């Protein structure tokens, strides 16, 4: 079953915490300076502008569910669409890391 185009932070939290299926790969498509500021645990950084040039890393994710996130959820929509076009099972995190920090983990710094 393919993932929806977007997933809420609450849905992602339940997925990550639930034992019923493997955790998704978290792919951060923000810029390097944003990554240095704050990030989700166990995430991989590939900025949106670098996706095309990093096919080897993306190919390694094939067959795994991927949740793409950014600051507010706009860049991640483009990133997830790009990955789906390449045959990945990818979805975007609605509201991005900002929504995660407000609704799930208020210890994460907001910017």
What features would you describe in this structure?
By secondary structure, the protein is an alpha/beta fold. It contains five helices and five strands.
Question: What brief labels describe this structure?
Answer:
globular, 111 residues, alpha/beta, 5 helices
Strand order of the largest sheet: 1-5-4-2-3
Uncertain stretches: none
Structural class determined from secondary elements: alpha/beta
Question: What portion of residues is helical?
Answer: 25-40%
Strands, total number: 5
Major β-sheet, in short? 5 strands, parallel
Measured distance between first and last alpha carbons: 35 Å
Shape, principal axes of CA atoms? globular
Arithmetic mean pLDDT: 94
Gyration radius, rounded: 13 Å
List the helices and strands in order: EHEHEHEHEH
Strand content: 15-25%
Count of discrete alpha- or pi-helical segments spanning 4 or more residues: 5
Brief overview:
The protein has a five-stranded parallel β-sheet with strand order 1-5-4-2-3.
Give me the secondary-structure topology.
Blueprint: E1 6-7, H1 9-17, E2 25-28, H2 32-37, E3 43-45, H3 55-59, E4 65-69, H4 75-85, E5 89-93, H5 96-103
Parallel strand pairs: 1-5, 2-3, 2-4, 4-5
């Amino acid at each position: 079953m393919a993932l929806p185009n977007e997933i809420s932070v609450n849905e992602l939290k339940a997925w990550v915490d639930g034992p019923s299926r493997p955790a998704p790969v978290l792919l951060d498509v923000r810029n390097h300076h944003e990554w240095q500021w704050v990030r989700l645990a166990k995430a991989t950084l590939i900025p949106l502008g670098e996706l095309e040039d990093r096919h080897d890393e993306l190919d390694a994710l094939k067959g795994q569910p991927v949740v793409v996130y950014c600051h507010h959820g706009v860049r991640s929509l483009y990133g997830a669409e790009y990955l789906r076009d390449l045959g990945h099972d990818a979805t975007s995190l609605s509201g991005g890391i900002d929504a995660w920090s407000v609704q799930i983990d208020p210890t994460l710094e907001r910017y």
